[in-house]
Amino acid sequence: GGVLGKIPANRLYAPGMALLNLSPTMPTMTQARGTNFNVELRTPTLETLSYQPATRVDYQIASSLRVAFKMNAFNQNSGTPDQFGNAGGTLGSSNYAIDGLYNNKGNQMPWITTYSASANYNIGSRTFLEVIYGHTQNFYGAVYTSKASNRNDVGLGGIPDIYPGARDVNQDYWTAGGLASITAPFYIDNRLEIPPQVSYGTRSGNTPNTPRYPGWFNVNKTWDFATSLTHVRGRHTLKGGVAFNHSFKAQNMTQGVDPMGNINFGEDSNNPNDTSFGYSNIAIGTFNTYAQASKFIESGIVYLGIEPYIQDNWKITDRLTLDYGVRFVRLIPEHDTYGQASNFFPDKWSAANAPTLYVPGCANNANPCSGSSRQAKNPITGQLMGAGTAGLIGQAVPGTGSATNGIVQQGQGISKYNFEYPALKVAPRVGFAYHLMSGGKWVLRGGFGLFY
Questions:
Q1: Measured distance between the N- and C-terminal CA atoms of the chain, rounded to whole angstroms
Q2: Each residue of 412-432: pLDDT tens digit?
Q3: Cα separation of 159 and 17, whole Å?
Q4: SS3 of residue 106 by DSSP
Q5: 284, 14 contact by CB (below 8 A)
Q6: pLDDT single digits (tens) 402-411
Q7: Residue 277 falls in which region: left (phi positive, over 0), alpha (psi -120 to 50) or beta
Q8: Most exposed among 46, 77, 133, 440, judged by the fewest C-beta atoms under 10 Å?
Q9: Count of C-beta atoms within a 10 Å radius of residue 8
Q10: How far is Cα 272 from Cα 391, in angstroms, rounded to an integer?
Q11: Distances (CA, A) of 79 to 49, 194, 218, 325
């Protein structure tokens, strides 16, 4: 625990007061028996307009060549203006409901297209060439559109960051272009100016929500290409070809400890600055715990599968047909193209490199040891860390050991894909269909295959 800023005598913590002032401070209704709120805000009418055009073209270029193309598209934007002039979103009912001002969301999407093209070419009367290409993607674009999502616009810019660079967005990330393509008031000069996540303590119900960078703001793309050659020869239909599947996924890592910060203003008797009420703690800048991820991370996950194959459909008799073939499977594992992933290896972990952990200590040997007397102690120096440090017990002592003990980054002595996969797998398969009685209605079918 501690204080977020230097507070002059007889002054309240300005960013804390700005945070509290985002909430309605006066009731809007008489609290009903059996309820726990006296402020109610109503969601305005929300209008949504979607477009879903679809197109298909088939063209018989020549008697031996036919091509086809189809495309489906989707676009949706929704919202009604709020008092900030932004697209409307969710409102709520609570003691201090700031959802309408703070968690205002707008659904913004660029045009999302799914398309495919194919061609069929007859090479004589018994041989056929087929080529197929397709692409699809989604785009999750529901982000905060209220000006209140920018901490500097609502007086919260004075809350310090533990890691000032944690809000910076790598311009190679998909996020950079994705946010630039839509209305995102919190994305300024390549930085995420979203306020920190706030916990208000346990003495108040229905506490306000605070916005966070949306974990679902991402894109998923796939590309598929396949070509095959089919030849009919007597009772055999021979076919060979190759299929490619490639995918890309941009996924940010903002869940858990947030790069924007997680501040707990809750009550804690071990905190010497505690007022015993979360809202009062906010007003004077007293926090219980404060955590922040050191960096905004987005993984660019890429995958590629290559599968050549050959097969035969053999009509052995008028009643028995046999299918058999084999695929050669080359799967390049999903991996982060930025090289940020890692793996833990127990055999590379060393007890000698393990960080030292704070242990419980008691000021003045008090018995029982409770409240501010219970403190974290550095086992190396024997030093007590002071009142309000009980939360450090079990945490690493700074400057001791290695934080990456036993951890190896992808491409740094291990596979650049972060884990290994066989270069080639052989996947045979066989199947049959047998007409039990000539002219009858019963057919027995079966098959076996290996798939990777």
A1: 52
A2: 999 999 988 899 999 999 999
A3: 11
A4: strand
A5: no
A6: 989 999 999 9
A7: beta
A8: 440
A9: 7
A10: 13
A11: 9, 21, 21, 54
